[in-house]
Amino acid sequence: MAVVKPTRTSSIAALTGAESSRGTEKDASSPSGGGSRWLHVLLDETLERQQKLWNPPRRWYRGSEAGDTCVRSLTLSVMGHSVPVSSQTKRIFRTGNAVEDANMQTMREAGIVIEAARKDKQHEIRYTDPPIVGHIDVLARKPTEDNKRLLGEIKSINSFGFKSLPSEHDDPRVNVKNLMAKKPGYICQWSIYSGAPNLDLPEGFMLFEEKNVQSQLIYMLERDDDLLVEILERMREGTKYILADPMLVAPIPKDRNPRGADEQCRKCSRKYLCVRLPDEGTTYDEVRRVDAEVRS
User: Fold this and answer.
1) What is the pTM of this model?
2) SS3 state at 255
3) Is the pLDDT of residue 114 over 50?
């Protein structure tokens, strides 16, 4: 299993044992070498080298973690575990941020954005049980007599993913159901934001923009309270571990099998660490020790 190691001065490809398309590190990274390989490597390295393997541990969930259906993975995320990504993925994230910024500007020009107390900040959502903190993309006002408030999320997507999205439906409940089948993580995140006690926004929308030709799909949404309860119960299950002293990683859930043919576990970037930890869970310090043995 390829695992990215902590050295930020070597390429991700070299660290994982993958063969680099830029040639060998020695040849490609030298400005005196031929062609443009040195510039490719320099730009890639600049994006990759600053990524952290561990962030400071938290005692609360991020709203964006609501789509993680594995309590063990959730607790590792809260502990601060991070897996570096390639420079290409970093560029994809950068493009996604630009798509969000452009749509926010258009909505401001349309006069439908309800600004936060500080215009350069996003509206914050908070729960106490379980402890969750998050920031929504946009709080909008529908231009009708009642000025209905809407919770909006903006997502960029590639051409293949865009074509696989369902058609827009006039019934927001149908849109929630259809998107749960295609993008469950996004709907879980929107639902957590929607149900936040400090905002309580039962209606809203999710805007998808295709990154190549800028086509858009906009789904009007209505909160599914049963789904919200399910998400909160899962996150509450992990709360006792993230608030424990010392902080603990949760046991492997009964419906997960990281050592078998479990499809969700197969795709999980934390699998390499999960399978090396005791099934019943362990402490933060032990997790860090085991991870250091693998990634250093």
Assistant:
1) 0.86
2) coil
3) yes
